[in-house]
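Backbone shape codes
____________________
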Amino acid sequence: MLRWLLQRRSKPDPAVSEKCYLVVGLGNIGAEYAATRHNIGFMILDAWAQASNVVFEPGRYGDMTVVRDKGREFHLLKPSTYMNLSGNAVRYWQQKLDIELDHILVICDDINLPFGTLRLRASGSDGGHNGLKNITELLESQNWARLRIGVGHDFALGQQIDFVLSAFSEEQQKEIPELAKKIIAGARTWAFVGIGQAMNQVNSRPKPEEKEAKSATEGAES
């Protein structure tokens, strides 16, 4: 089906392209990386595909599938380039499908956020994430949406790589399905309503106990 769709769109139609979106989940290929924190982007797209009864097929620079939803086409991409060269896949499919930059959403991990915290932005810096950095370099723009998923930062100095390439805890794994549902719903809002409403819907706010702990800490330091 994917091959047929791409053949049908070999000559992009602006009216069709306006309703097409490229959603990229970042990660590394290979069984040894499948359940790691760095592959949370792959996990979210796998959950979306499963919920939509579609399957990924091998394509240029990655695995692709298409979710059709109320007149929109969500092209889900899992790059096969490895994380640090993700831009090759994003640029190729952005050009192949003739998709505007503001119709691109990249989903990735973020060690600077507590586990489960979500940050959706319409544009911005790479924040030290090599996958985002490469995408920015090859698209020559920061003007595409990115959704960062907090994976926590419980690691010692110099252990960052080992941490992101290790598996989530058992308790965290149990939370990922609900997290995926929230992200998928937010991605649909982004396409149907707009980035502003999606940000209000998706972006996590500190829990009451986290606010109290922060206030107490600030009070002790003052």
Observations:
- DSSP finds nine helices and seven strands in the chain.
- Residues 186 and 202 are 6 Å apart (CA to CA).
